Amino acid sequence: MRGWGFVKKKLSKILIIVAVLVFCLHGVKKVANKFGIHLLEKSNIEINYEHEWDNISKKDKKIIKKAISLAKKKEKLEYVWGEKGEIMTEERLDELIEYYGEKQYPLDKKDYIGKQAFDCSGLVYWVYEEASSVNIGYSTAQQQANLEKYKVKGDLQPGDLIFTTRHVVMYIGDGKIVQSKNKFKYPEGGIHEQPIGWYSKGVAYRPIDYINEQNNKN
Fold first, then answer.
1. pTM score, two decimals?
2. If we measure between CA atoms, which residue out of 125, 36, 46, 53 comes closest to residue 83?
3. What number of CA atoms fall less than 13 Å from residue 19's CA on the CB side?
4. For residues 21 and 104, which has the higher predicted lDDT (pLDDT)?
5. What is the distance between the alpha carbons of residues 37 and 19, in angstroms, rounded to a whole number?
6. What's the rounded Cα separation, in Å, for the pair 102 and 36?
7. S-S: 211 plus which of 52, 123, 134, 218, CB 3.0-4.6 Å?
């Protein structure tokens, strides 16, 4: 039989492997945070279609419904990397191409110019800014940082934001979301509604609670 010395050596190797894995995971998180990348967490999403609006106050409903309505009105606009609701000009498009690279803007210029422009975080930033006059954050990283205390507990409700890796969508009720999806031409990309689908595996936050906190400070 192999003695205690052999077992100790095996245990030591296992502990070293575990320590290396923990260190690597910690390192990955630090690097991700440095570059504004939030690693995907375990989903907290539950949906109860029949009672989605039941626990929302009249005041909050007004803000949420306005934000949802604004987002839905932007359907069919193309996705524009880096934009937060500005009207696109040729000069601005040239600036974006120079800064981010031409591959981020693959469509014809006419598909962008003269129209309001949003990326994914830009859309939800803009609709909540318009609906509440509160800035929830420009980027997905800023939004998740601002909303960290307001992670959804229990059922998803309209107006909640669902984050996946470097992307955000808005839940609008009845099992649907609205999003500014990607750089491909609408309807493959651009702003559109769709069933929640695999976004139900994301992590949801409640911006209306953050908005109320900011308003209470003033």
1. 0.81
2. 125
3. 6
4. 104
5. 24
6. 22
7. 134
